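Standup notes, structure subgroup. Blocker cleared on the GLP input:
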Amino acid sequence: MFNIIIADSYDKISSEAFRILKEIMLADSPVLGLATGSSPIGLYKKMIADHNTNGTSYAKAITFNLDEYIGIPAFHEQSYRSFMHENLFDHIDIPEENIYIPRGDGEDHAADCAAYEAELAKYHIDLQILGIGSDGHIGFNEPGTSFDSLTHVTDLAEQTRKDNARFFDDDIGQVPSQAVTMGLASIMKARKILVIACGANKAEAVYGMIKGPQSEECPASILQSHDDVTVILDKEAAVRL
Ligand code: GLP
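Run returned:
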């Protein structure tokens, strides 16, 4: 079931997202599912500002990130580990041992995926933050990914590599071709899901997620089967609804 919020500025989108996150932070040991990409950056800025001004503590929070590139070192400037440290973790009081990010630089990806899923299984994500790819991917679950998927290695779609080339000197050749991602079934286990999407290039994917047929061709359409999904959009992303 979708609760849809359309806001008229990115700041308002981020404030709405932050309001939902703050409710989750009231729990004793909140478990947060975190995403990279430009969409949640405003939310992370609000979390940092609130930590600095109001002292909201993340000392007991546990975080799981959705995905990580394969083929670049863990602390490459474009790794999702670096992104999370730069945009959130280095500015709040979360202990390093409470941070889980899929490993993309190991020798045995299958074993690393299984280990990640086993860690996830020890917890229950209270709030999963998601962006959405222009092809309808969530995490790095590209079109065609099984709705039953757990953490796995994935080949990145050409569209995704094009979209992400802006972070790699606009050179698609530098964008990794594979990633490790939590699966669609792993994501669906979260108690509550929050999707943030902005811009006209997301309108088709947002339509597919909410109104399209539920199909593995639009991975985000799996969310139609979840009973607590809030979607926060700008007008451009909502134009087809
Ligand atoms: C990447 C990430 C996704 C993210 C998507 C959208 O491919 N793997 O988790 O949701 O991009 O990114 P953005 O928010 O920058 O549009």
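Discussed briefly. Residues 35-39, 66-67, 131-133, 139-140, 160, 164 surround GLP (CB under 6 Å).
Next: hand off to the docking folks.
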